[in-house]
From TrEMBL:
This is Condensin-2 complex subunit D3. One of its GO terms (cellular component) is condensin complex. Residues 153-199, 1386-1412 are annotated as: Disordered. GO terms for biological process: cell division; meiotic chromosome condensation; mitotic chromosome condensation. It comes from Esox lucius (Northern pike).
Amino acid sequence: MELIHALEFLKLKEVSVGWVDAVWDFEFTETEPLDAAIAIKNGSVEFQTLYNRLIPYVTDTEGTDAASPSVWTVFGDNGISVKSLVAVLSYFVLGGKSHTANAQQRINALQAASLYLLLLGIPGSVVNKVFHQILFDTCLNTVSHCWPQSSVKKRKKDPLKSSQGDGKRSKPHRKDNDRDNDEMEIDEDEEQEEEVHLSPQDLLKMREGVVLLVKSVLHLLLKFPLKDEPLSAENCVQMFAKLTDFEPVIGELTFGARQEIDGMKSLPQLAYYGLWLLCSPSHGDEKGSLSRVFHRILYVILMMDKRDSGQPSLMMPTQAVLAARDQAVHFVCHIVDELKEPALPVLRILLQHICFRMVDKTDYRMHGAQAVARLLTKMPCAGYASFIKWLFDYSRHAKVTYRMFALDIAMVLLEQPEREGDENLAPELVSFLPHKFLVHNMVFGRRSDTSPTVRGHALTCLAQCLELPSMNATRCVKELFSTTSAQTVLESDGSNGSLNSQTTQKTFKTLPFKTIEITNNENASFESKETMALLKCRVSDPKTNVRKSALQAITGLLKHNVIMLSEVTLAVLSERTRDPALSVKKKALQCLMDLLASHPESNMVQKAWLRGVVPAMVDTESSVQEKALECLEQTILSQVKSHSSYSYRDAHQTLTWDLLGLLCNDCQDLSRYFSRAFTVWSKQNKFTEAFINNLISHTEAEHAAGAWLLLSKVASSCPLFDYGKILDAWDDLVRSKNFTVTTSCHILCVIGDICEHLNEDTKCRIVEDIMTWLKIFDMPLEVISASVETLCRLGKAETIVDTQKFLNEHCGELVSLCEVYLSGVILNENGAENLNEDLVVKHLYTLGVVSLHCPSKVGKRIVILVQSVLTSNVDVHTAEASEELAGSQPLTQFKPSSMPSTVRAHAVVTLGKFCLQHEELTRKYLPAFARELEMCRELAVRSNVVVVMCDLCMRYTNMVDRYVPNVSACLRDKEPLIRKQTLTMLTNLLQEEFVKWKGSLFFRFVTALVDPDPSIASLCEYCLVHQLLKKNPVMFSQHFIECIFHFNSYEKHNTYNKFPQTDSERAKFSLKGAQNKEKRFRIYRFLLENFTDAQRFNITIKICQNILACFVDGELLLDADGAAVLGETFGILSLKEIKLSALSGAAGLGGDEPQEDEQMAMAKAVMEVAQKKAISQVQKKVFIESMIPIIIHLKSILEQKRSPVLKDLMGYLQLTMQDYRGEVKEFFAADEQLAAELEYNLKMYEKELETEAQMAHGSIGGEASSGGLPVVGSPAADKRFLPTGFATPQPVVPSHRGLLTPRLSQSDRRLPPQQRSWVRATSDRVCTTLSGSVKPKGAINDRAISTPQGNVNEVTFGEGVSAIFSDRGTGSKMGDEGCVLHLMSPEQQTPVPKQWNVQSPLNQKRSRRIQK
């Protein structure tokens, strides 16, 4: 009677029969409102009371006595209609579905649903027709309807934004998804309307209702089998899967076969127990049940929210989400441990789908890889090896995300112990168990991937292999670079890295939870030399992330002694500190620091560190300067201790003094960069008195050179200190002169820095010592320069007049001494015979240095003496005949000089210093310098003349401007040193705008791009792109058209190529002729590659107006030179570099760059297509209005003159009209013959492509990757037509897109004669010999000799067919494997076949097409 009393609050007897029938007739989808008299005052308590009265009938704790009536009997005896009870409960359940339902309605809905599910669990519910499919599913969904979802949804929207998008939510533009989009919009509108406020107390009560409902479902599953209700079972799985991350769990979850339901308090624990119950045979086939459960667990592991419809959405990887993922992985492991063998096939499917549904986000990939590795531990050896084989094929999928994820999995697997095979393992799977396979084939195998993202990640993983605690991975990497290691070849079945096309087009909504099969053919092979060369090549990869990863890989190899230290390899790291990319510079600095820390004793590493870090102090990026400053401070400045505390056992101090020693000897050229660091440190007050005293303590020890180097840098900015030891060192230097040149210069520099703190007597004594040194003229040149500099600093007075008086006195004395000596040598007839070359050089050098400080003491006589030394040793008559020296020739009054080259080179520098102080000398001697550049054959002289003239250009810009062509002519000097020096100095002048792009300067500059020395060509490219183009972005486009005329030496145009040039200069820079065509086009391509799309578009129009139109109007004649220019113009218009990047890029292919998911990929593809269409329409309009009329006229003119340029014109048209295939007649309505010819040529071209496609389709194996390196093909490449209905097969994209028609072939003209004939032969007939005359459709099973015979095949578990079908031919037989397709090599001559009275059906079909 307690049960009947508990039912009274529902007032079932007052409910009308009509209302109940209406509810059942509508199948519980909607209900009419109940009578107002039926009201629930305290529903929560009353529902709970009714629940407590019913629970004993479910758990059998009551009613076990046969005399006790069942609940159904009780209902019948008391006139309670079960039908009415179910209808009223459904009313409350449906009342909580609305977004506007209040808290009490939601709580009532949860409790009513719990009561209904509890009734289903009571024996006899089926007989009494309590179960209803729709109501059951509605009750299961009550949790998602009643629990507030707005906050969760808003949290989950953010991760959907792709890093490549514009931040807006994209929608797929497909008709079949319109309904889904409408539903999504409706959901969003309803979500915005939800304004119900739920207090924490309300949420707590609702949570209790959810627990009650879940426990009711668990009681139901223990009693009520769902074997015959697969949809209901699926809904149960879905509900439990959503509850696995409903709330955080304190501690770890425990999973058991039998647990007390009432003892569980956590919703995730209840949910996993429900999932465990659903795996039992009572709820369906064991494999089917496992598949349902694992399919839903899949999204928890992937950290995705799978809603009822639509594709999953990513969840933020918060701590709660990560904990739920770990619990899901633990649960799967528990199921596998319990069920053993039956769960393994489904576990494999789960692993495959984790891989296949991975998104391109680093955090998700990392956690996904960890989950895969943990689940793989439950696989036996055979299953593990089989999955690794599948994973290897997966690692060569066309989608970038998959290849990246495969690398992540391999890295996590390398952290696990290596597996050993057992007796049950098949022999062909043994090679997949060792870590060697993961390192060699999966990690290093992606070293040449087509995607830069994958290439870079593979190299990063290779470096990380060396950091793993396991020695297996390190040993495997060493085998890669071992010179004695054998070549590793994996013979695997499949193509060049593309998964079946059906698989690439699956979405999360359509891909079944079944086995995924992959078919691949790729041979992974590598050798030690190729491996290292490839790594060095990757350091200069066009992509930034690849260069960074390559640096990390090389650093790791050097750190762990996998490869030997060498200057070449270390130079690669040093050079990258000057990389154009900021991140690469920082990475290179960090790599050098790591390498120095691992090899502090290596002299080569120390030099490389200095060469990389010290020059970074003058980098244009302030962050790079800061990083370099940090490295220098950490390695050098902070390690300076007093000599008394120094110990050679201290590696850090020893390293510091070794580096300073190198800066004093082998790396002296870095001193100016090193000084920049001290300038910064001085502003930061880094030089304390203790630091200076520590340095001084080393000046008399073994590290004196390094100590004086540091003192010379810090003395000018340090506080006052004891100068006694400095003066004592100076006295020792004067007396003994045992110091090295570098140390002497440093001591002189310190003396100059502290001179203002010395008294007058000390200054005078030091001045006398320096003058005594200088008058002897026996010091090295470096010491002379430092001595003069210190002398000037010692003579600095309070007024400029006094300072100049001091300089005139002392420097003037040195000038007089030099004049006397040089007069004796030059004016004496026998002076040159007993010439002391070293002494003359020192006098000339001293004269040049001191003349800068006392220009008034430089008389006319000394100038004439120096210029007489410069007179070239050439025939006077030859010099007079030179047209370049039409101006004054001041040096011809002297007879030819017999001075050595070194003396003349220093005379140039000295005379240049005279000119810097006297403008009239500059005007007088500039012609002499120009004469030396042309006539002199001595390298040192020409080199110094270039330096002098560039320095004079900064001082006297207008005066030197007319001689810039003479300087630029040195860009074609026979000596690489002069070419490189000229290139560098001209770049500096152009940057500072001392020189403008006037005359032929631009064209001479860009000819360095084709310099025979690759280093000079590379330097020119760097200067143009990274230094000059940034300053003048339109520089290339402004000069491009004139390049065509200039490089072809065409001077008949009214505007272009009209600047003055001498015949020698014209011949020196000429690139005219067929022999230089490749060089010219290399320049054109370089310029076009650095154009913007707007510049490409404009240059096409300008070429048409300024070149093609001129030939049409008769302004330019079609003679031999004109034909060459016109043909080259059409060649330029045919270049792929001139096409707009927005049109030439492959839109929507997927696989080139990582995609977020199918929806984002489709949105991006739609945007690219729309952009391409808009730009194409503009280009089409310009082509019709500007190009076509001129093209038609030109064609008519060329036909009349029978010009060979007609072939170039037709080739250009054929390439261009491929984009407008169906509009040929419309474009060329004015020339029907031309339209017909183009139609015919395009048809022939398409026929050739079709033939290639048929030949490729008839071969089982894919094309081998070139160069022996694995290359992943695009999704459209190497596809086969497969018998499946999941997706439309993609057509084969031919690998050769050249024009195969002999008359119009662009590539034909570039081939040698022997290969050209072979190309023509292939255009007339198919070079294949078929073993049979006719093959039935679908039975083409012939294969090339080098292609493998098998496929990678999988077996779908529990199904008759796989989700992804294999590509076996339907008509193949075992005996057909002997049929071989013979391909002819282009190097071999075409054999003459035996004449048979039979014609091939292929040729018959082709003949009919041609006749039509």
